[in-house]
Amino acid sequence: MAIHLTKESKILVQGMTGGEGMKHTRRMLAAGTNVVGGVNPRKAGRTVDFNDRPVPVFGSVAEGVDATGADVTVVFVPPAFTKAAVTEAADAGIGLAVVITEGVPVHDSVAFLAHARRRGTRVIGPNCPGLISPGQSVAGIIPADITKPGRIGLVSKSGTLTYQLMYELRDIGFSTCVGIGGDPVVGTTHIDCLAAFQDDPDTDLIVLIGEIGGDAEERAAAYIRDHVTKPVVGYIAGFTAPEGRTMGHAGAIVSGSSGTARAKQQALEAAGVRVGRTPTETARQVLAALDAGA
């Protein structure tokens, strides 16, 4: 089993015929992902051949859903068109929209996330690497060859750290890895993924990666304390961030002790989470937690 994405998922790629869309569609297909079509109104009716795998291009998401039964879309469109793309996907009945696009205006994100929520569409992102259920499917830009199927669930704000922890724990493997994105407003939160992993019978342990700024990790800690019975291991990016400097996605929001790596570590540890100070130490904490539960 996995969360949000399985081998049964049928994926459309909005913006498939662009440079990034083409590159990552090819990678998704190579990983065994069931990509059933692309969407580009100007190239509707064409077929793109990916190493002898023909993928049709539809004029709209609704056309793609009607023709293929697609239930997931991956969005590779420029920031100015992202709001329209996600709105179109939600109106077409897509269950999961994975928004890779970086630089989406916050007011656009607020609008399309509210619309998607009303339509029953889960959004991951924007400005995220997507998600992977190893051995089953990839929706986004996460490399498929750096880990294997296993029983660890991973939720992360950081794309790069997602990849590093996947690699560090490649001998153990993952049920699903979700990169939720680091923008101020995102469609899927740490808490959403914690709840899904808690309910997934094939996830034995959860890794949570956060970063300085904001209070998402503190809220996740409160949720873990009250609702999560599986072991959780955490890592907070930004322990070495210079005071007063903007770092990464959210560093500018650090004020006093609020939003610092230390404050987040304390909140997580108070909820029973083991927190590593480096990715490698975090991986060792995962192994220790798994050994303790063996």
Please tell me about this protein's structure.
This protein is α/β, with parallel strands linked by helices and 294 residues long. The chain contains nine helices and 14 strands. It has helices at residues 19-30, 61-68, 79-91, 106-119, 159-168, 190-199, 216-227, 261-270, 279-293, and strands at residues 11-14, 35-39, 47-50, 53-58, 72-75, 96-99, 122-124, 130-133, 137-140, 149-156, 174-179, 205-211, 232-237, 274-276. It has a seven-stranded mixed β-sheet with strand order 3-4-2-1-5-6-7, with helices on both faces. Helix 7 links the parallel strand 12 (205-211) and strand 13 (232-237). Helix 6 runs parallel beside helix 7. The longest helix is centred in the last third of the chain and has 15 residues, at 279-293. 52% of the residues are buried. The model has no long low-confidence stretch (mean pLDDT 93).
Topology:
Elements: E1 11-14, H1 19-30, E2 35-39, E3 47-50, E4 53-58, H2 61-68, E5 72-75, H3 79-91, E6 96-99, H4 106-119, E7 122-124, E8 130-133, E9 137-140, E10 149-156, H5 159-168, E11 174-179, H6 190-199, E12 205-211, H7 216-227, E13 232-237, H8 261-270, E14 274-276, H9 279-293
Parallel strand pairs: 1-2, 1-5, 2-4, 5-6, 6-7, 10-11, 10-12, 12-13, 13-14
Antiparallel strand pairs: 3-4, 8-9, 8-11
Quickly describe the structure.
This protein has 294 residues and is an alpha/beta fold. Helix content is 35%, strand content 23%. Strand 10, helix 5 (159-168) and strand 11 form a beta-alpha-beta unit.
Strand content: 15-25%
Q: Helix-strand pattern, N to C?
A: EHEEEHEHEHEEEEHEHEHEHEH
Q: Cα-atom Rg, whole angstroms?
A: 19 Å
Main beta sheet: 7 strands, mixed
Mean pLDDT across residues: 93
- Judged by helices, strands and strand pairing, the structural class is alpha/beta
Q: What is the first-to-last residue Cα distance?
A: 21 Å
List segments where confidence is low: pLDDT < 50 over at least 5 consecutive residues: none
Q: What's the oligomerization state?
A: single chain
Number-wise, the strands total 14
User: In which order are the strands of the major sheet placed?
Assistant: 3-4-2-1-5-6-7
Count the DSSP helices. Answer: 9
* Helix proportion: 25-40%
Shape: globular
